Amino acid sequence: MHPSETLTHKEPGTGLHPMRLVLILLIISIVMMFAAFTSGYIVRREEGNWLEYALPGSMLYTSIIIALSSATVQWAWVSARKDNVRQVQIALVLTMLLGVAFLYGQWQVWGELVQNKVFFGGTDSNPAGSFTYVLMGVHGFHLITGLIFLLIVLGKSFRYQVHSRQMLAISNCSIYWHFLGGLWLYLYLFLLLNH
Amino acid sequence: MAATNLPTNAQAQGGIGVTVPHTEHDEHHHDEHHEQHWLFKYVFSQDHKVIAKQFLITGIFWAILGGTLSSLFRLQLGWPESTFEWLSPFLGRWIEAGKLNPEFYLALVTMHGTIMVFFVLTAGLSGTFSNFLIPLQVGARDMASGFMNMLSYWFFFLSSIIMFTSLFLETGPASAGWTIYPPLSALPQAIPGSGMGMTMWLVSMALFIVSQLLGGVNYITTVINLRTRGMSMGKLPLTIWAFFLTAILGLLSFPVLFSAALLLIFDRSFGTSFFLSDIYIAGQALNHQGGSPILFQHLFWFLGHPEVYIVIMPAMGMVSEILATNARKPIFGYRAMIGSLLGISLLSFVVWAHHMFVTGMNPFLGSVFMFLTLIIAVPSAVKTFNWLATLWRGNIRFTTAMLFSIGFVSLFISGGLTGIILGNAALDIQMHNTYFVVAHFHLVMGSSAFFGLFAGVYHWFPKMFGRMMDEKLGYIHFWLTFLGVYLVFLPMHYVGIAGFPRRYYAWTGFDAFSQFADMNKFISIAAILAFFGQFIFIFNFFYSIFRGRRATENPWNSTTLEWTTPIVPGHGNWPGAIPAVYRWPYDYSKPGAAEDFIPQNVPYSQTQSSNLPYERDTAE
Fold first, then answer.
1. Do A127 and B274 touch (CB under 8 A)?
2. Which of A8, A16, A28, A29 to mutate to test the interface with B (most CBs of B within 10 A)?
3. Which residues of A touch B295 (CB under 8 A)?
4. Which residues contact residue B373 at a Cβ distance below 8 angstroms, ignoring those fewer than 6 apart?
5. Tell me: the pLDDT tens digits for B163-222?
6. Range of the domain at B245
7. Cβ of B365 under 8 Å from any chain A Cβ?
8. Which end of chain B has less Cβ packing within 10 Å, N or C?
9. Which residues of B touch A43 (CB under 8 A)?
């Protein structure tokens, strides 16, 4: 018998599941996009004609909300490890509620910016303000994709497809959600330090 | 129990119609038993081979269109005094009183660049061959995610539809050059093409980027995770290394283009001022304040420079493979080839500002970028010398694919040498925006990548369609194209050194350039003839799909895994188990071996007569 006949059809080159690697690569592409925005921000700021303005205080609250949602998604992951499906569902729903609250908070921040006469576009706008809107908006868009991912995993949990022996979906989802939270904290710090 | 699951050398070499028998061991049940609906088999297919063909056919469509556009503007450049009334049935209003509309000329140049760089040489080249060869050469049933792979093609298709539709807009397609520099691209008042045409360009490119990311993520994951047993990274064919690094470049650079495009969309449609400041148009001051057009160039070229390697590296990989196969020699310097690909990939991210020497950048910064740019000559030269050393005293078989591969090396050398000139800031400032630049990049990246594409199609056609392409027609196609390319681009260097500027509709108003009228006419004739030569290829391609000579399993006596599959591999690629890999992919003309090639899946235990002292099976 030829030795190859005993082979299984694939031999993973790393310990990673292919879908985990796909997720990591997609995260890298998102990182590159925000690297472009923030480095463009710095380059543009150095050139002068830059509007200085105070960041709305409520950004701190939205940051706290998203940090909390990271904790709840971690709770969901731990519960899945312990096969506690009920808690997984509660934690996922809580995470989604916090995510929606975060988005609503960001919307309020935009309102505050407009009240402070920091505009996205138009005659009175300045790239300093426009960049803030773009960073928040593009992050918000990705957060919506994160919410959809949470919804899919929640659906799976109702079909009993999320438990200690089927952790891939909830692991990927929690990695993505942690990433989105971390990304926002980075953006918040970045704006605090460079506005 | 089928001991003949893997064709032996004799089978692989000789027998017409040798098919690998099905075994009971088939742990993967293929789709022969449950017929798929044709819509999912041929249209919304998740099979990497079908998707590869979809990319190829779409790419051929775009290449014909891109070539047609270039023939149109070469007509204008070659015969600036003539009238083109005879074109008005095709171009309609764009012919005004017999003359080509100058704004449409800019649209032609822009769309030619966009189509060729993105739709043909990125999607058509890398999309076709990464899809086709990665699973077959690493020994995988399919891509990591067939669904994402299918989405990748359909995003590309949608993007193609939008770009194609924009050609028929009343205000014309995008016209600000393929680099779409603002403010020209941002202000519809500046040029008609910056209206709806530019909007559609941006939407189309955004979808294109999504397609590239979905594809690239799949290529990387497949190479890392789905290699067959024994296929270590050090045993991968150079094609796979090239596709792998190309996908990484795309993954890192396309998101940056997306950022730039998004900001440009906001500037155009939402009144922001990222790239716009202090602009007067027709005596009117615009509202935009505080933007920086140079910022766009930085963002654009951070993609734009890696993009030229995204275009050329797949061609490099395929040429390495074809040269070794047809010279019947191991590729010279396998590890150096991988190292130089890695070097080129790394350097590609730190040289973008050499496109911007004339933006008023700090001369010190310019010299840093110049230094980094010139370092690229090192890995490029390593590759070139290795190709030449592979040919040296080889037992060369001049197949059509081999001719195109040798042509690739020739064009890469000719075009690469002028890169050393243009990489120097002091020289580039003189040459910037002249035809010298046009000649340089058309040789080193445009024509070379096309030659890689042709070489790949001629070489892998038997595995794609189970038939051979006609060699005689291939030779005619090669010589017409090879001579045509040189006849077009060598004189163009000369015109460029004289200072002839690119993107000019007509130069008859300048005494300095009117002496080049004959030269321009010559270039135009050569370009149009070379373009018509491509129809030989297109005829050959479609004719051979249906009527070509039937192929054998391994017509080129090649060593890589794709040639161990049936003549036309079905879904899942190997009917039985996937072969394991024991050796590197370049065991050609090994001393002591029974034949002049040993496929990767032949264990050392079966080749005692040719084994080197340290060679024994480790994949058990």
1. yes
2. A29
3. 40, 43-44
4. B351, B354, B423
5. 999 999 999 999 999 999 999 999 988 899 999 999 999 999 999 999 999 999 999 999
6. 39-277+290-564
7. no
8. N
9. 292, 295, 298
Q: Does the pLDDT of residue B575 top 80, yes or no?
A: yes
Instruction: Give the alpha-carbon dihedral of B237, B242, B247, B248, to 10 degrees.
Output: 100
Q: Is B352 on the interface with A (CB under 8 A)?
A: no
Which residues, in sequence order, are bridge partners of residue B550? B467
User: Using an 8 Å Cβ cutoff, are B572 and B565 in contact?
Assistant: no
Using a CB cutoff of 8 Å and minimum separation of 24, what contacts does B288-293 make?
Answer: B289/A49, B289/A125, B289/A126, B290/A49, B290/A50, B290/A51, B290/A126, B290/A127, B290/A128, B291/A44, B291/A127, B291/B182, B291/B267, B292/A43, B292/A44, B292/A47, B292/A127, B293/B181, B293/B182, B293/B183
Considering the domain boundaries, does residue B611 fall inside one? no
Q: Mutation target for B interface from A20, A21, A25: give the one with most B CBs within 10 A.
A: A25
Sole residue written with tokens 């993007």: B159
CA atoms within 13 A on the CB side of B463: 24
Look up the pTM and report it.
Answer: 0.91
- Token representation of residue A121: 């576009």
A22 contacts B290? CB cut-off 8 A: no
Token reading at B616? 């024994």
Answer whether B213 sits within 8 Å of A29, measured CB to CB.
Answer: yes
Which two three-digit tokens encode residue A59? 């950004």
Q: Note which residues in 53-112 of chain A have CB less than 8 A from chain B.
A: none
Predicted ipTM? 0.91
Block residue for tokens 């032996």: B8
How far apart, in whole angstroms, are the C-alpha atoms of residue B249 and residue B240? 14
Q: How many domains does chain B have?
A: 1
| Cβ neighbours of B598 (radius 10 Å) | 22
Put simply, whether A140 touches B (Cβ < 8 Å) is no
Cα B158 to its chain centre, rounded Å, is: 20
Collect all residues of chain B within an 8 Å Cβ-Cβ radius of residue A7: 228-229, 577-578, 580
Domains parsed from chain A with CATH numbers = 18-45+56-194 (1.20.120.80)
Interface contact A8, partner B, CB < 8 A: yes
- Look up the CATH number of the domain holding residue B433: 1.20.210.10
Hey, of B29, B219, B225, B296, which one would you mutate to test binding to chain A, going by the most A CBs within 10 A of its CB? Answer: B225
Could you tell me if residue B227 is left (phi over 0), alpha (psi between -120 and 50 degrees) or otherwise beta?
beta
Cα-based torsion angle of the residue sequence B13, B15, B16, B22 in order, rounded to the nearest 10 degrees = -100
Count of C-beta atoms within a 10 Å radius of residue B603: 19
pLDDT tens-place string over residues A138-164:
999 999 999 999 999 999 999 999 999
Q: Select from A167, A178, A151, A1 the least CA-distant residue to A74.
A: A178
d(CA B94, CA B76): 13
**pLDDT of A12 over the 80 cut:** no
pLDDT of residue B620: 47
Could you tell me if residue B193 is inside a domain? yes
Nearest chain B Cα distance for residue A117, angstroms: 14
